[in-house]
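User: Design a sequence. Structure:
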């Protein structure tokens, strides 16, 4: 039967913090997307199983749940896992998923996993928002739906379960995405119950056409770069070559070091099976060499795979990846990449002030605990606090 909206009471006590799976100090994290059953089996051993089943795998640290494929209005799609959900009566495209709710709590409390909600996906077609205000309101809605309980009356697909953060997997232009991201970042940083993470999954081509501007104007904790379906994919890594002419992890490492969060971790995103994500599946000695090469860069955070159903249909692959990640690497990278980059001009790029300093662009960081960068905004914007760790130009 159809369920009703939850009327959530304010929780005055602080939820005990449980260490999640993502380790920002590690280069051995493994992230695997769950929710889309891309292997395509409706039944049998290779059909997508419930979330908690996979959380018991000790090799997996981070699971982005895919997808919230509509934001305004909200839409969710979890493939066959949605068969165990019921639609909210006021929005039949939004699913109330008690099983996923229970599994998220099990994954976090029993197995210590980091559970992210992935926004977008290839079927996202809403195109974003017509104004920054609309984008900010949408971010607030997403936070109310999946963040800590606040007493707001709203449909919560995962009930009282609270995700550990959000992943941006937008694969086409999303208007006012920087404003959406900055607002969500501010809400996350202002929360006191636990640390929340912001992730993105851009294509390896740099800069990413859909997410590039947002990556440059919002602080991310991890970036799950899709090194597949493009000329810069892992299958084009040249084993033993002193120069990489296609594979471009070094370019992403350079971006990471100059980003709003210079400690952001960059993941090597790969298909988990042949045909799992189009082109680019790599295994064996070539994958091992590509991981070893990438590990030489200080921003390297681990490997991301698409997706869980493909992974479990590819016997021994996660053990191979975990083994490759465990191999120590030399402290510095000596190889270089020759590539063509596309420059995207925007009106929100930072520029020099009349006094010779740097003015922060709209939605860029201008303050917060530990922040040491410029604090003055480009006119007509002002530096607005979004919490203890984040202030941005608005």
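Assistant: Done.
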């Amino acid at each position: 039967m159809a369920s009703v909206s939850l009327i959530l009471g304010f929780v005055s006590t602080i939820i005990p913090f449980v260490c999640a799976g993502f380790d920002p100090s590690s280069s051995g994290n493994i992230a695997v997307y769950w929710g889309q059953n891309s292997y395509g089996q409706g039944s049998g051993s290779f059909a997508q199983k419930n979330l908690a089943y996979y959380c018991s795998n000790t090799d997996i640290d981070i699971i982005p749940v895919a997808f919230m494929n509509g934001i305004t209005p909200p839409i969710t799609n979890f493939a066959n896992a949605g068969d165990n959900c019921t639609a909210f009566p006021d929005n039949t495209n939004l699913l109330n998923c008690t099983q996923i709710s229970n599994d998220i709590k099990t994954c976090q409390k029993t197995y210590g996993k980091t559970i992210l909600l992935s926004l977008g996906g290839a079927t996202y077609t809403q195109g974003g928002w017509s104004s920054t205000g609309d984008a900010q309101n949408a971010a607030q809605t997403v936070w109310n739906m999946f963040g800590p309980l606040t007493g707001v009356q709203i449909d919560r697909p995962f009930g009282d379960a609270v995700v550990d953060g959000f992943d941006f997997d937008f694969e086409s232009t999303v208007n006012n995405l920087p404003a959406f991201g900055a607002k969500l970042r501010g809400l996350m940083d202002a929360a006191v119950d636990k640390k929340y993470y912001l992730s993105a999954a851009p294509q390896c081509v740099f800069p990413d056409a859909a997410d590039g501007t947002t990556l440059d104007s919002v602080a991310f904790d991890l970036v799950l770069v899709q090194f597949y379906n493009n000329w810069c994919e892992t299958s084009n890594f040249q084993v033993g070559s002193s120069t990489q002419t296609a594979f471009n992890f070094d370019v992403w490492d350079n971006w990471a070091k100059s980003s709003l969060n210079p400690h952001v971790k960059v993941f090597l995103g790969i298909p988990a099976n042949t045909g799992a994500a189009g082109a680019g599946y790599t295994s064996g000695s070539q994958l091992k060499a590509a991981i070893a090469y990438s590990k030489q860069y200080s921003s390297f955070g681990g490997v991301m795979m698409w997706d869980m159903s493909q992974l479990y249909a590819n016997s021994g692959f996660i053990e191979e990846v975990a083994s490759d990640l465990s191999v120590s690497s030399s402290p510095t990278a000596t190889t270089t990449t020759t590539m063509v980059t596309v420059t995207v001009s925007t009106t929100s790029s930072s520029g020099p002030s009349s006094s010779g300093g740097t003015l922060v662009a709209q939605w860029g960081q201008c303050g917060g605990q530990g922040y040491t960068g410029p604090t003055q905004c480009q006119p007509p914007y002002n530096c607005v606090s979004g919490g203890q760790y984040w202030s941005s130009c608005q």
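The CA atoms of residues 219 and 260 lie 5 Å apart. The chain has two domains: 29-338, 345-394.
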